[in-house]
Amino acid sequence: MGNKAAGLYSDFFYRLERFMSNKRVYVLSAFILLLILVPAFGFSRYIMRIFIVIGIYSMLTLALNLVAGYTGQLSMGNAGFYAIGAYTSTLFLIHGGLSFWITMIIGAVMAGCCGFLLGLPTFRLKGSYLTIVTLGFGEIVRMILMNWDPVTNGTLGIRNIPLPVFFGIKLSFANHGLYYLVLVLVLLVSLLCTVIINSKIGRAFIAIREDEIAAQMMGIKTIQYKVLAFVLSAFISGIAGAFYAPMVGYIDPNSFTFDVSSQIISMAILGGLGTMRGMYFGTAVLIVFPEVSRFMMDYRFVLYGLILVLMMRFRPQGLLGWQSRLPYRLSKDVKKELEKQGLNKARYSSK
To answer: Could you tell me if residue 191 is inside a domain?
Structure first.
């Protein structure tokens, strides 16, 4: 009976994935249109802020997913990259007099450079050793921010961070400019991740995750790709940090603690590592759940932990991280070549 139920459960997810794969253009178009129309529903500033926070953490989980989900390297240092992007962008914005759009790129590039510096000495580490080193990196960044008073203002933080300005219009909560900005950033980051995953780089990441030794034997330069995963992840985290700073108007080292890294990892695991759909879903669930459970103020985090424990016991691949059984989608050139050789096209197509 248990095997039959498991089979029905697996078949449901297979049919759902097949439907989403075949109708993905329509589903994505409808979902993006719905997100664009969200401000038209007249939600309060509190609700709109939740949407914006979901957008920020979606970028952070997508960044972590490149390292942990597709390359198989569990990193606990994304809060450090997040902080570097926020502080670098803010310092150039306030003291350098540059526009937000330029400082955002500077913050993301600075975070990417730090990702490169972290990736070089850790490329030989795996498992818990890599986790401990990246965790230490995040704490080192926080300690530097706390003690470098002349630059970061120490534990007092940086106040009065100006909002982004687009063609003379200040983007704020009132005109929904911040919401649309984070929506555009999430879409751009999602597009970047999609291109990476479906490219030669993404296939190399997956090969390293599945079997690093086999990947090396096939000529994949695993060291370069592992470092590249760190750089890309740090770059995206830097973008999220650069947006976060003007959104809240104030940053200090306590905004980028270990709790932030653990929250990002929890979102990625809950949704399903190695999938993009899981990143959005896990983020939305773990951002909304604490808000709707405020009436259980004394017990909501106990329930939150219990849900994660049960999920790891009965659904370790994540809520949306089901194992795909769809055939590998080949490019049009490969399909044409197979047709020339007289092979059955249906065998190599998911449609």
So the answer is: yes
The total of structural domains in the chain comes to 1
**C-alpha gyration radius of the chain:** 21
pLDDT tens digit string along 199-212?
999 999 999 888 88
Tens of pLDDT, residues 211-266:
888 888 888 888 899 999 999 999 999 999 999 999 999 999 988 988 888 889 88
Domain hosting residue 248, numbered range = 44-257
For 48, the token pair is 């709109």
Closest alpha carbon to 152 in 89, 241, 60, 236: 89
**Helix, strand or coil for residue 158?**
strand
Global pTM value: 0.85
Task: Judge whether 69 and 223 are in contact, CB under 8 Å.
Answer: no
CA distance 65 to 53: 18
Tell me whether residue 307 is in a domain.
no
Place of tokens 């850790």: 122
What string of DSSP letters covers 238-257?
A: HHHHHHHHHHHS-B-GGGGS
Report the half-sphere exposure of 11 (CA within 13 A, side-chain side): 6
Distance of CA 277 to the CA centre of its chain: 11
The amino acid at 73: Q
Let me know how long the chain is.
Answer: 351
* Six token digits for residue 326: 């769809």
Please give the structure tokens belonging to residue 13. Answer: 């997810």
d(CA 273, CA 265): 9
How far apart, in whole angstroms, are the C-alpha atoms of residue 46 and residue 24? 31
Burial class of residue 335 (count of CB atoms within 10 Å of its CB; 0-12, 13-18, 19+)? middle
